[in-house]
Amino acid sequence: MSVQSAAADVDVDLRQLFASLARNWLRILVVTLVVTGLAFAFASFATPHYKATTQLKIQLNESAYTRPAGTNEDDKPVLDAEGVATEVQVISSSDILNKVARDLNLGDKPEFNDALDMSPVSWLLVTAGLKSDPAEIPLDERVLQKMRDKLNVYGVEKTRAIAVEFSSENAELAAKIPNEIAKAYLAYQADAKTKSNAAATAFLGPEIDELQKQVRDAEAKVAAFRSAQSDLLMGGNNSVLATQQLSELSTELSRVRANRASAEATAERVRQALQAGGSLDAVPEVLSSDLIQRLRERQIELRTNIADLSTTLLDNHPRLRAMRSQLADLDGQIRNEAQKVMRGLLTQAQTAQARENQLISDVNKLKAASSRAGEEQVHLDALQREANVRRQQLESYMASFREVSSRKNYLPVDASVFSEARVPSEPYFPKLVPIVGAAFVGSLLLMSIITLLQELFSGRAMRPAPGARYERIEQVAMPGASAPVVEPEPVAAKTEEAEDRPADMEHELEPKAVPESAPAPLEEAAAADAEPELVRSSLGEIDVEKAAEKLIASGAARAIFVSPEGDEAAASAVLVAREVSDAGLRVLLLDLTASGAASRPMLDSGLFPGITNLLASEAQFSDVIHADLYSDCHVIPVGTADPVRAMRAADRLPIIMQSLTTAYDLVIVECGPADAHGIGRLVGDSTEVFLSMLQADDEVAQAAVKLIESGYPDVTLVTPIGHETPGHPVPGRRSAA
After folding, report:
1. Spatial separation of the C-alpha atoms in residues 650 and 612, rounded to whole Å
2. Closest alpha carbon to 572 in 723, 364, 737
3. Nearby residues of 207 by Cβ (< 8 Å), 6 or more positions away
4. Are 690 and 512 in contact (CB under 8 A)?
5. Greatest C-alpha distance within the chain
6. Residues of the chain falling short of pLDDT 70
7. Could you read off the pLDDT of 255-285 as tens digits, one per residue?
8. Residues 534-573, buried b or exposed e (16+ Cβ, 10 A)?
């Protein structure tokens, strides 16, 4: 597992988090008691306020005995939510409130007039110009503003009721003012109806007189046009006589045409029967003749006799011949009679044709007369309609005028008070127990949350997540060669720290001894200590520019600098950081040396908070990151916190490195004379390891060999010799360190 992934596997230690409440119980309790005491004092000395409510019912209060004629209970207007909201605005209007204020002389009471009893503090604020002078505001406006602040008018939900709520320092005023507001509202409605009634009376009187004159003129025009200016004669069914006659003649003409057509058709059938020599029995008009019927009876009788005699006599017998001769005469007579019937039908058809021609002539004349009568009737109807409209309007106005006159002294308002405000016996503010209880609970909860957040953000409540493993790593920032001098502490303090500190932490805090004897040169040490399975490494000394180019080209996220020669060799990390920053990357230098050798020349001071303050939970990231005075690089110095306390949280270094790697393109760490175990916590993905050197001596060679043997075969030697930079002169070949 990489160090980066292990650094991300952290969890919140709930036991440690909530244990902070027990550690800080005294502070929480003191703050809670102070806030509760202040709340108790406020509730005890605050001016009591009383509240009372008057309720009104919004509906039409019309009596069943005084309701206008033609209306019933269902005709009452229904007031919707918008109507109730409108009445709420009317009740809280300035006119009604000013009337109540004048009736009750509220301007003479200090509660409603700030200019009467100004406190010394208010007087000083007014004198200094920090507060407006109440006396400069008109009295009515001051009183009205105070009343609006204390008044609450609202519609009761899902009802047509309105509540008028008022609060005051005086219990009697708290009940009296809403009652007076309700009375003023009812009086306003009654006055509005009285004015409306008077306005309606003043309007309807002259209108009725004018309409009466217009009705008389319109009816006179109708009578004059009907009698003198037109010859419109009315028939029995209240229609014009010409139109009625035209209708009757049209009916007669249709009947005559039908009779003529029937006679012509019957005569044509008789003619066809006579010409064809066929039987006339199929023609009903021929058979209806009495003579033809008698001839047909005689013909039947002769045929019967002929049939009887034919059985006993021969065909040439004189008697049979005589009977056949009589039968032939009868046929001729029947045909002659049929021709007479045909001629009668033709005569009837001619008569009907003449009658039809006469009726057509009469109809044409009546059409012209009816057309003239229709035009005159249209004009007459227009005059009649105008007269009727005038009369209907007159009757409507007269009915309304009678209604208004009858309700002159009875005008029911559309609201009534069904619950008057009563003088309250207890103030609604302040409530001692709720205020003190809320202050106690709120302050206790707030202080607990603040304590938990402080513990959480400090990092003391963070622990490795289950399954995360961290290899034991030696101390990074405090190597033995340049360890800070810590003054001896009292024996009791050391004993107490030793009891609280784990055994492995004590081992990490022990300073590491620097080898005093110089080993063999680099080539000989590498050849003597190398084993067959050791990874080969090519070491070459490069300058600052080449080191910066290597970091930029490789895209490294971290660069670890080890300076076995002491503080002056730390100049390599500073110079490389500035070179990479000048190339346009976001670079941060983390100084883990004991003396601040890397950050001190960048900040010109060693008193800035740094990594030790961050580890000791005395500062946040924004407090420990500073800008280099000579470049765009950022730097985290060693800091000013106690190193022993800071190293108790050394396990947080991987988390800190992960956060810095996320925020910056490159994080450069100057570790001083640290070994391979010391830099283990700082190495992650995309990490380059550099060995700073001033001269190639045995100490540098031994440090390089140890790094290679410990798993860092790509270590690179870098020297600051020959590179000049502002604020950080290049050291000599060897320092006193």
Report:
1. 10
2. 723
3. 397
4. no
5. 195
6. 1-10, 61-79, 119, 226-242, 273-290, 369-374, 406, 408-410, 459-540, 722-737
7. 888 888 887 777 777 777 666 665 565 566 6
8. eeebebeeebbeebbebbbeeebbbbbbbbbbbbbbbbbb
Count of other CB atoms within 10 angstroms of residue 287: 14
pLDDT of amino acid 50: 92
Reduced 3-state DSSP string for 126-180: HHCCCCCCHHHCCHHHHHHHHHHHHEEEEECCCCCEEEEEEEECCHHHHHHHHHH
Phi/psi at 53 (5° precision): -135, 135
SS3 666: strand
Tokens representing 492 are 């009791």
**Among 535, 529, 541, 521, CA closest to 716:** 541
Instruction: Say if CB 558 and CB 666 are below 8 A apart.
Output: yes
Please compute Rg for the chain using Cα positions: 63
For the chain, give the number of residues: 737
- Report the distance separating Cα 562 and Cα 9, nearest Å: 28
pLDDT digits (tens, 9 = 90+) for 196-210: 888 888 888 888 888
H helix count then E strand count, the chain = 24, 14
Structure tokens at 683: 């190495």
> What is the residue-wise DSSP string for 556-568?
-SEEEEE-TT-GG
Query: Residue 185 in 3-state DSSP?
Result: helix
- C-alpha to C-alpha distances, 354 to 249, 265, 268, 302, nearest whole angstrom: 15, 17, 19, 44
How far apart CA 101 and CA 610 sit, in angstroms, is 68
pTM (predicted TM-score): 0.44
Is-contact 337 273, C-beta < 8 A? no
Collapsed DSSP state (helix, strand, coil) of residue 125: helix
CA distance to 48, 112, 634, per residue, from 427 (Å): 6, 19, 63
Strands 587-591 and 666-670: parallel
Token pair listed for 247: 């209708």
Q: How far is CA 400 from CA 198, 407, 493, in A?
A: 13, 11, 106
- 8 A C-beta contact, residue 175 and residue 423: yes
Is the distance from CB of 96 to CB of 181 less than 8 angstroms? Answer: yes
Residue 560 CA, distance from chain mean position: 55
- Between helices 698-709 and 522-529, what is the axis angle to 10°? 30
